């Protein structure tokens, strides 16, 4: 009793002490078994205060992130507005282009119809003129064909004679050139052969003389026999060369006789050639007249071909205009499809933006609820006059609020499932202090029942705060 009164006097004497210090003084005056756990609670409370500061810092970071998110959302909203404005401008531009193209298409159709009518009239007139000219030219060609058939026979005979004459002249010239070349080659060979034989004889004689000088005393009969044999071989070579020269001279004589015969044939053919020439001149005059007539007809035929080409070109232009018209229609259809796609994209972007707005509002509501629950949890401090039932009820209410926040986050797909949360939280009730768990201490030591809920609440509160912050982050 004396110690309790003394403790009361101390509390009265020092009114500046906090509730925590008064609680510590009571625990010091109380049971001495709690002296060891008191230091543990002090360290644990400091740890919890450090965690509280850490969570406050995380809360500030979340606020900064929320501001960044709002800034990003505003930038996305501006980008969306710019995109919508750009799409509207593009749409108006495409509509103007479609209108211009439709006007151009209408003008082209009208011009095409007018040009088609005029071209059809020209084509009908040209066909009529060409048919008349064709009939006239056909009748004239029939007359000219009869005249040309008589000229073809004469032309063929003249060409045959001229070909024979030209062939004979060419053959004669060719043979004379060949004979001259052969004679020149033979003469050159003969001269070269003579020079070579002379040189060989001189060299051989010089060699024989030198050899005779060397072996004149020993082998005079042998050297004489060799000289005789060599002289015989040289004479044999000279006889062969003379025979070849005789053969070449005979061939040259035959070629000269052939040349004389060809000259005689040419003189015999000259009168016939003159006669054929006179006839050819008369035929050339007729051919000149016919060629002039053919030139006139060819000019008319070229005009006809030119008109046909012009008609084909007009048909090609008509086909090209038709293709351009089809391509313009396809471009118009593609522009309409692109416009529909742009409208669909714009509607989709509007829906996505509205969905993001709804999700953002829901997330902001969940965030506000989490902040309120966290603030309430951080401000919650058990009082001396609170009973165990009041402490447990406040703790249960706090846990309900936190669970409601977690349920809302889970519904949005931004938080953990409730069953997983209970699996994580359930083992915390078996937190041990010293040798016994919290429920066992509460049952066995009834004197500490006022401290047990406070301790359990302080042990579970940081865990609940941590889970709530993590769910808000998700």
TrEMBL record:
<dbReference type="GO" id="GO:0007288">
    <property type="term" value="P:sperm axoneme assembly"/>
</dbReference>
<feature type="coiled-coil region">
    <location>
        <begin position="238"/>
        <end position="265"/>
    </location>
</feature>
<keyword id="KW-0969">Cilium</keyword>
<dbReference type="InterPro" id="IPR038844">
    <property type="entry name" value="CFAP157"/>
</dbReference>
<feature type="compositionally biased region" description="Basic and acidic residues">
    <location>
        <begin position="18"/>
        <end position="37"/>
    </location>
</feature>
<feature type="coiled-coil region">
    <location>
        <begin position="311"/>
        <end position="369"/>
    </location>
</feature>
<keyword id="KW-0966">Cell projection</keyword>
<feature type="region of interest" description="Disordered">
    <location>
        <begin position="1"/>
        <end position="37"/>
    </location>
</feature>
<feature type="coiled-coil region">
    <location>
        <begin position="109"/>
        <end position="203"/>
    </location>
</feature>
<dbReference type="GO" id="GO:0036064">
    <property type="term" value="C:ciliary basal body"/>
</dbReference>
<dbReference type="GO" id="GO:0008017">
    <property type="term" value="F:microtubule binding"/>
</dbReference>
<feature type="coiled-coil region">
    <location>
        <begin position="45"/>
        <end position="72"/>
    </location>
</feature>
<comment type="similarity">
    <text>Belongs to the CFAP157 family.</text>
</comment>
<keyword id="KW-0175">Coiled coil</keyword>
<protein>
    <recommendedName>
        <fullName>Cilia- and flagella-associated protein 157</fullName>
    </recommendedName>
</protein>
């Amino acid at each position: 009793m004396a110690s309790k009164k003394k403790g009361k006097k101390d509390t009265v004497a020092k009114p500046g002490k906090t509730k925590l210090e008064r609680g510590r003084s009571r625990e010091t005056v109380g049971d001495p078994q709690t002296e060891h756990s008191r230091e543990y609670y002090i360290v644990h409370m400091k740890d919890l205060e450090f965690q509280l500061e850490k969570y406050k810092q995380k809360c500030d970071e979340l606020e900064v992130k929320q501001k960044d998110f709002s800034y990003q959302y505003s930038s996305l909203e501006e980008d969306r507005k710019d995109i919508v404005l750009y799409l509207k401008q593009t749409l108006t531009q495409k509509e103007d282009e479609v209108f211009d193209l439709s006007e151009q298409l209408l003008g082209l159709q009208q011009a095409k119809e007018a040009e088609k009518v005029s071209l059809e009239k020209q084509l009908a007139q040209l066909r009529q003129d060409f048919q008349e000219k064709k009939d006239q030219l056909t009748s004239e060609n029939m007359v000219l064909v009869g005249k040309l058939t008589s000229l073809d026979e004469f032309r063929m005979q003249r060409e045959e004679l001229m070909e024979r004459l030209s062939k004979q002249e060419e053959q004669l010239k060719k043979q004379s050139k060949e004979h001259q070349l052969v004679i020149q080659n033979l003469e050159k060979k003969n001269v070269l052969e003579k020079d070579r034989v002379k040189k060989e004889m001189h060299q051989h004689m010089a060699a024989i003389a030198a050899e005779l000088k060397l072996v004149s005393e020993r082998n005079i009969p042998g050297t004489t026999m060799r000289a005789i044999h060599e002289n015989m071989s040289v004479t044999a070579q000279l006889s062969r060369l003379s025979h070849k020269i005789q053969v070449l001279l005979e061939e040259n004589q035959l070629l000269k006789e052939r040349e004389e015969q060809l000259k005689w044939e040419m003189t015999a053919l000259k009168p016939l050639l003159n006669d054929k020439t006179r006839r050819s001149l008369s035929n050339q005059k007729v051919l000149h007249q016919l060629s002039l007539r053919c030139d006139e007809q060819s000019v008319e035929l070229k005009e006809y071909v030119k008109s046909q080409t012009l008609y084909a070109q007009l048909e090609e232009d008509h086909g090209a205009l038709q293709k351009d018209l089809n391509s313009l229609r396809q471009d118009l259809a593609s522009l309409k499809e692109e416009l529909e796609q742009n409208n669909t994209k714009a509607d989709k972007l509007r829906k996505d933006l509205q969905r993001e707005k709804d999700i953002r509002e829901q997330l902001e509501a969940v965030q506000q609820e989490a902040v309120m629950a966290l603030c309430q949890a951080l401000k919650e401090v058990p009082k001396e006059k609170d009973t165990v039932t009041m402490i447990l009820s406040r703790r249960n209410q706090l846990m309900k609020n936190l669970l409601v926040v977690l349920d809302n986050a889970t519904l949005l797909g931004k938080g953990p499932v409730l069953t997983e949360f209970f699996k994580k939280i359930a083992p915390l009730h078996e937190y041990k202090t010293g040798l016994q768990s919290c429920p066992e201490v509460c049952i066995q030591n009834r004197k500490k029942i006022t401290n047990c809920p406070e301790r359990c609440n302080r042990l579970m509160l940081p865990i609940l705060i941590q889970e709530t912050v993590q769910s808000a982050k998700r």
